[in-house]
Amino acid sequence: MAKSPDIKSDAPSDGASSLHQRADLLSLIAVAFAAVCVAAAIGTAFLVDYALSYMQAEFGFFWPIAAVLVLCVASLFRPALKSLFGAGRARSALASKDITKARIETADAREYAQITLGWGVFALILLAFVCFVLMNNVAVGDTFFRLPLIRDKWWLITWRFLTQNLFIFVVAEILVLVWGLIVALARLAPGRAGRPIRALAIAYCDLFRGLPAIVTLYLIGFGIPTSGISEIILTPIVGMFVDLSAMDVHERAAAVRIDVIWWCVIALTLTYGAYVAEVYRAGIESIHHSQFMASRSLGLSYMQTMRHVVVPQAVRRIVAPLLNDFIGLQKDTALVQVLGVTDAFNQSKIIASNAFNLSAVTVVAFLFVIITIPQARLVDKLVERDNARMKAGG
Fold it and tell me: What is the pTM of this model?
């Protein structure tokens, strides 16, 4: 790079630094930190080898795989050495009073050092997790990751997860989308005539946002069937299709009984409907009032304005927070075990009680994380797209 006489003249005549930051110490720290990480990786490899020997497990490819992993950690030396050499070039440039080059080399050296430190911390956390699993003669790992138990029971737990947790989540999510919009529109009902409707919507949101989901599940799942309200309502409806007079008391009760899984769906719908209604309301109120006024001036009714103008724009703005609520809903499906539903969590607890081991619960945790990660990344993408659109003035 050509030296600029104007910039170079900024340098002090005695060659002292005019840089507000130097990279010498940081680059040395990066090299030392990379060495620590490599030492930790080698130590962890020997610890894993000891654990395998203790468990009398034979794994012929362990040391080749361990060598590859240690080499991956050793790759931290690449940015660390770049940082060290960059700091050296910065010193040389500073000595020759080339301030511009000194600043560029310093910035590069500091960035390489920060890369080393960042990935080094990442590697150390992973190594610490491996060491945690191997603590107490692999007792910790055996408690959470007993592979034979996981191999034997993972499909039973996964099947419960798919048929119970995922089913409840999908049905409740569809109902929450519709119910939340209805409540939001009720809360925004215009005029004095809409005041009682608004009051009901506000009371509903306050009540179900204040109640813990597990309490709502308990009250609805046990309370309504016990009170007999469901039988009073369903008996005439079912009687339109089935001759209940020919059944005895037990058969009639079974014919009009609602499966507990549907009470779970109703309870979660009521709980998350309150949250989603507030999300809808925030989105609708974010639309400029001129949109509403222009639509009404064109002759559209209030509901037509909401249906064709306001709500479609609002939904575009609330997709990300809606998905966040749905991630919470999906995780709360594990609460249905309080009603006796044999979902994945309940099934894993049964297995854990029989085997005196928590590896089955680890499988449940893994399933929830696996299904949550794609949704979380989708939320990130939607937020990024929304931010980009806002920056572009869209």
Answer: 0.74
